[in-house]
Amino acid sequence: MIAILAPIFVFGLVIFVHELGHFLAAKSVGVYAPRFSIGFGPALWRRRRGETEYILAAFPLGGYVRMASRHDEATAFLEGGSETAVAEKMKEDPSYDPDAMIPFGPKPVPEDRWFESKPLWARLYILLAGVTMNFLLGLVVAIGLVMHYGRPVIATREVGAVRPIRGEAVLAPAVQPGDTLLQVNGQDARTWSHATQLIARSEGPVTIRTNRGTVTVPVDQPGAPSREEVALAMDYRMPPVIGDLLPTEAAAKAGFQAGDSIIAIDGQPVNSWSEMVAIVANAAGRELRFDISRDGAGQELRVTPRGIHSIR
After folding, report:
1. What is the model's pLDDT at position 273?
2. Whether residue 19 lies in the annotated active site
3. How many CB atoms lie within 10 A of CB 163?
4. Structural domain includes residue 93
5. Structural domain count, the chain
């Protein structure tokens, strides 16, 4: 149900904010706006306040703001007939207002309240207000998410895996799994996130110092790796603990559960998630024996992985 309602809510919110921008802009420069509708088709809810009728329609596939125009009579068929016919029908409605303007009463709309009567800057202001409101909505949502969740920071500095760059062991043996990143280009690395930022901001060769040694890598030169390749050649250490499992995959069928800690695979100790992924990735179609710890007790599970996506 959420999968159905969530897109409708998000789409509806975007439409509402967009049309609200047009509506508020039109009102601010004196354009008569008799109708503000979210959705099309039969009205599920409607209410008139002041000189505007607000409508929630059956099909949430868009929306519109009706603004007074010299072309009202020609386009009135979109809302069920001519302006004159609508005004006549309104006489039979208990909400008929003899002092209101068309379409809620008999009075014609003054020309100075038509959309076309406004200067060019005002018309552009009305037309651009919708997309401007959508931009502001995106900005507000982004700021709200950052304020709620904060900026993701990987606090560790311990190396979990080191990969070759373009087939060459550029960082090894100076950087190996289990090392601790201390400095990048002479600046202390406070966290893993900070270290990758320092690498990305490097203007010359990247110098990485760990607790065991130092390596300098030329970057952004002919044949040399980029700063991004240097940063991606290292993974931080993450404990080999199972998180989510896909029920249809081999791991779940073999008996793995969320929270299981991987101790060893085929007798080979596993110290990080990266090590486990590397072993599983190279063993597609071959049965592996996993020694795991679950709730403090050791267990043995056997599974034949299809690839690195067998365990999540």
Report:
1. 87
2. yes
3. 15
4. no
5. 3
